[in-house]
Input
Amino acid sequence: MASTDKTAVDSESAPKSEAAPPDAEAAVAATAKFPFDYSVVDVVLRILVFAATLSSVVVMVTSDQTEVVPVPGLPRVSLPLQAKFNHSPALIYFVAALSVTGFYSIITTLASLAVVLKPVYSKSFLLVFAFLDVVFVGIVASATGAAGGIAYIGLKGNNHVGWTKICNVYDKFCRYNASSLALALFAAILLVLLSMMSTFTLYKKISD
Output
């Protein structure tokens, strides 16, 4: 009888030992819903935004070039003329917009690190991120478009209004401008990804 009772007790306790604890089941469910850590990816992308905007501003600011060019109407007279970003309001706006975006990326990177340390505030931060990222996508896109228009005029000119191209003379200035615009476009794409990620993750957290 004792052996029979012991066998019955063992058969009853076996299923209990196989059952996973509630905390482990919750962790598995959370992993299935979020296969990657959003906060870490967010921090990495915002660091990339800062690097792209900083590089873009540095390249644009250092694009100045001086060349000796003939004076229009006086073909025998040549003067040294300098091409700089601050000669164009569009390029000044571009540098200002990218500088503000770089400062914004620093602040939001620190905020993302705070979310990593204290995930309880993640919903509030995600809502702010989703709104501000869209705003800065518009700022960077408008600045890139304005600077791109000036760069195109410098490359091709405009015969209808008598604007001559300058990239055949100021080649370094134009190359630096093109590189700066490419970096700004990369930053805009990163901001779009951040906005989409913030919105999607916020939706998932609210729906759960």
Observations:
- The first strand starts at residue 65 and ends at 71.
